[in-house]
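Below is a filled-in request sheet from our internal design queue. Each sheet records the structural input a requester submitted and the sequence that came back. We keep these sheets so that new team members can see what a complete request looks like end to end.

REQUESTER: design group, bay 2
PRIORITY: normal
MODE: inverse folding
CHAIN LENGTH: 402
BACKBONE (tokenized):
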């Protein structure tokens, strides 16, 4: 354990993937913005390089952000050849554990809190065995079931789990009960080593009176009286936005004044745009790109749709509930721990037919109005203050044991 000589506060290093906005990154920003987290000296350590412009650099002071990239050397290096960089990354991968150890020594944390599965074996070994520093891994997704064909990742996860369970300074946090059951393969979980801390959102940001922004609607050529179904998140395969496009085509054959908006950016932007054009729904299905003001986005939509084939506990879903928006969601991961018949409709994953049926039900205004009240009630237990309080209790408990 390395003594922090620069501050009397407990120093925590939060390890994340890239600085690009995603669920784990947004949760961390929400936590750091709570008053209770001001008790700690918090630092961000990013281990995945990203050139995306919508990053945490815009919301977190630069002096609080440190880098130790797995994918090193990066595109920003002075090496012009992509093939050479790729070869060097493979050849120099073994150096990550040494670079990570050196970085943590410089930061001198009392606790290391990881929010990323990438290289979780090296993270846990370096922190617990190499430096004897308390280590928390928050598991955000259903890694074992989602990546069951990725033997290397599963092996890394198993190494980390065994070490954390064995080491007195290790803890695992699941963002839902389903996540812990998945990571432990439904084996009995010791409460001493693993616990559930549900994700949370700042309810006061989303619970304001909802009023649609006429200018926003005009920007996307959406009539003021349209029923708008919205989705939000990274444009990646697991989110299954293609199902929304297919369902939209079927719905628009029967109903008028229905629109679908998908907020977010990612590698599938171009292919989804082509899918929209192929299905001839380009005037009704709109990719808005990254939305910096998510409370404003939720004010524009009438129903939130999450059709992911794998989830831990999506923040966007909690934000929708906090905005008083009924939800259509696939029954995966921890979603059923949040959504019931009073706040939304659960559907099986990968089913266009079930999605079309749920959308058809939500087009009835009376059904939406009933579910709005239930959405607000469901959101109450998922405040960011509750989440922050539980993490603070965990931090203090771990420091006390030193």
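RETURNED SEQUENCE:
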């Amino acid at each position: 354990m390395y003594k922090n000589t620069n501050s009397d506060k407990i120093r925590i290093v939060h390890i994340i993937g890239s600085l690009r906005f995603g669920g784990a990154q947004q949760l961390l920003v929400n936590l750091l913005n709570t008053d209770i987290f001001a008790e700690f000296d918090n630092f961000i350590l990013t281990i995945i390089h990203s050139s995306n412009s919508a990053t945490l650099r815009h919301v977190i002071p630069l002096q609080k952000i440190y880098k130790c990239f797995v994918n090193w050397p990066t595109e920003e290096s002075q090496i012009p050849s992509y093939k050479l960089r790729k070869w060097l990354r493979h050849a120099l991968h073994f150096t990550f554990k040494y670079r990570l150890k050196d970085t943590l020594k410089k930061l001198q944390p009392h606790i290391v809190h990881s929010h990323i599965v990438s290289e979780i074996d090296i993270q846990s070994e370096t922190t617990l065995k190499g430096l004897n520093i308390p280590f928390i891994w928050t598991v955000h997704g259903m890694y074992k079931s989602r990546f069951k064909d990725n033997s290397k990742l599963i092996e890394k996860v198993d190494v980390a789990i065994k070490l954390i369970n064995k080491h007195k300074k290790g803890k695992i946090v699941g963002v839902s009960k389903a996540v812990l059951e998945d990571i432990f393969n439904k084996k009995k979980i010791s409460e001493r080593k693993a616990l559930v801390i549900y994700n949370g959102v700042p309810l006061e940001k989303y619970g304001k009176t909802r009023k649609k922004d006429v200018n926003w609607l005009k920007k996307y050529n959406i009539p003021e009286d349209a029923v708008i179904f919205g989705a939000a998140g990274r444009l990646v395969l697991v989110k299954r936005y293609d199902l929304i496009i297919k369902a939209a085509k079927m719905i628009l054959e029967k109903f008028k004044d229905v629109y679908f908006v998908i907020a977010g950016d990612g590698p599938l932007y171009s292919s989804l745009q082509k899918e929209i054009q192929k299905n001839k729904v380009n005037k009704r299905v709109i990719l808005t790109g990254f939305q910096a003001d998510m409370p404003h986005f939720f004010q524009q939509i009438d129903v939130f749709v999450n059709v992911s084939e794998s989830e831990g506990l999506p923040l966007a879903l909690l934000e929708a509930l906090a905005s008083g928006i009924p939800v259509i969601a696939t029954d995966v991961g921890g979603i059923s721990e949040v959504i019931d018949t009073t706040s939304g409709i659960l559907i099986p994953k990968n089913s266009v037919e079930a999605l079309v049926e749920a959308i058809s039900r939500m087009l009835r205004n009376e059904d939406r109005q009933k579910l709005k009240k239930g959405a607000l009630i469901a959101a109450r237990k998922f405040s960011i203050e509750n989440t922050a309080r539980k993490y603070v209790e965990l931090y203090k408990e771990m420091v006390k044991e030193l």
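SHEET NOTES:
- The chain is about 40% helix and 15% strand.
- Residues 1-5 have pLDDT under 50 and may be disordered.
FILED BY: M.R.
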